[in-house]
Write a structure and sequence with these properties.
By secondary structure, the chain is α/β, with parallel strands linked by helices. Helix content is 47%, strand content 12%. The strands form two sheets. It has a seven-stranded parallel β-sheet. It has a two-stranded antiparallel ribbon with strand order 2-3. The two termini are 17 Å apart. The chain binds coproporphyrinogen III.
């Protein structure tokens, strides 16, 4: 693995060693959505506070991140926030409805709506997330580095246009096809704001930033190439060199060739492809993260162990493998199984 970055001052431990391209004696592990409803501590906090209230409060957000990382003994901690906070900062209105997921109150329907987006300093407006990062670093110390994140432009634009989650993305794709100029203008604006937001997180001490392109797999390779890839390239080029970058998507098997051309350190993959097959396509000059089906955590311990070891064996102890799930932990996941998975990965010695 090669790396252009040198951020050793930001922390220690196997997680950053793996990003630096060093061989580690064991594989680092953290889990997407490691802080959330499957944990009793989190559900208790949610009795008193709304989800957005927790995100907006740097003390509470840092507590959520810290408690989860300590309970699981993982090698890194992702900051407690959401990919949709940037749409709230852009005055599109955001709330979460129980059982229904996120709602964007004033979705984008037209070129006029894109032009009317406020000119904001996103890093400044979302500086509370930077404060959460600083508090978390204070709580956890250098051994457990903090991961910042943002949504990638396609996934965030899809929420902004659909007004919430979507199965087939008819509205977002229709906008893309019928109002291509407005689509590209929207993506340009999201790139500027997302870069500002991420660079503020890096300045606040995040050692790694992850771009969540959760729904990019809805795009054909041709649509990805035309409507998403150029913007992703621009965004990645504007991210500070003081942090490593992970690009994560799901259902990306048909896109991996294009993703391998992004100037990021690590690509996150889901469970619909074997890790070694994916890594061969991505190229071993980049790292790889992910791969375990989150629903495996509903299985018996023997199965969890078997599937985890299979992934570790496919990685062959190569530098740059970060163990993770292929998508976030689900709300009903048994906590004991999550802790067990972390133990299995951490006790496996790389040859
Ligand atoms: O440990 C962590 O990963 C916590 C930080 C985190 C959250 N959201 C907290 C959260 C992260 C990294 C995210 C990213 C995020 N948010 C993504 C990308 C990752 C993915 O899962 O694909 C997406 C698509 C969102 C948007 C979003 N936020 C949705 C669709 C939902 C509702 C679905 C759900 O799980 O309820 C959320 C809410 C949300 N974000 C919760 C948490 C802990 C649950 C809120 C609650 O407590 O009710």
């Amino acid at each position: 693995m090669t790396t252009l970055r040198n951020i050793q001052t930001k922390g220690t431990g196997v997680f950053l060693q793996a990003f630096a391209g060093e061989k580690t004696e064991r594989t680092p592990v953290w889990l997407m959505r490691q802080a959330g409803r499957y944990m009793k501590e989190y559900r208790d906090l949610k009795e008193k506070w709304g989800f957005l209230e927790l995100c907006h409060n740097p003390e509470l957000a840092a507590t959520v991140t810290t408690d989860a990382a300590k309970a699981l003994k993982v090698d890194a901690a992702i900051i407690f926030a959401d990919i949709l906070l940037i749409l709230e900062a852009l005055d599109l209105g955001l709330h979460f409805e129980a059982g229904e997921g996120p709602v964007i109150e004033k979705p984008i329907n037209s070129a006029e709506d894109v032009i009317a987006l406020p000119q904001i300093d996103a890093g400044q407006k979302l500086s509370y997330v930077g404060q959460s990062i600083k508090n978390t670093i204070h709580n956890l110390g250098p051994e457990i580095p903090v991961i910042g994140f943002a949504g990638a432009p396609f996934t965030v634009a899809s929420y902004a246009i659909e007004g919430g989650g979507s199965r087939n993305f008819e509205k977002a794709k229709s906008f893309m096809y019928h109002q291509s100029d407005a689509w590209h203008m929207l993506m340009d604006k999201l790139v500027v704001h997302t870069a500002s937001y991420l660079n503020m997180q890096v300045q606040s001490g995040a050692s790694v930033v992850q771009l969540f392109d959760s729904w990019v797999g809805a795009l054909s390779p041709a649509d990805f190439k035309e409507f998403a890839f150029p913007h992703l390239k621009k965004l990645i080029a504007s991210i500070s060199k003081d942090a490593y970058i992970v690009y994560f998507g799901t259902q990306t098997n048909g896109l991996l060739n294009q993703l391998s051309q992004l100037d990021v350190d690590t690509i996150g993959v889901d469970w619909r492809i074997d890790l070694d097959t994916a890594w061969n396509i991505i190229g071993h000059d980049k790292g790889i993260q992910g791969n375990l089906d989150p629903v495996t955590l509903f299985a018996d311990k023997e199965t969890i162990k078997k599937r985890a070891i299979e992934i570790l064996e496919k990685a062959q102890g190569r530098p740059g493998h970060i163990f993770n799930l292929g998508h976030g932990i689900l709300p009903k996941t048994p906590v004991d199984n999550v802790k067990y998975l972390v133990e299995i990965v951490q006790s496996y010695k790389n040859k």
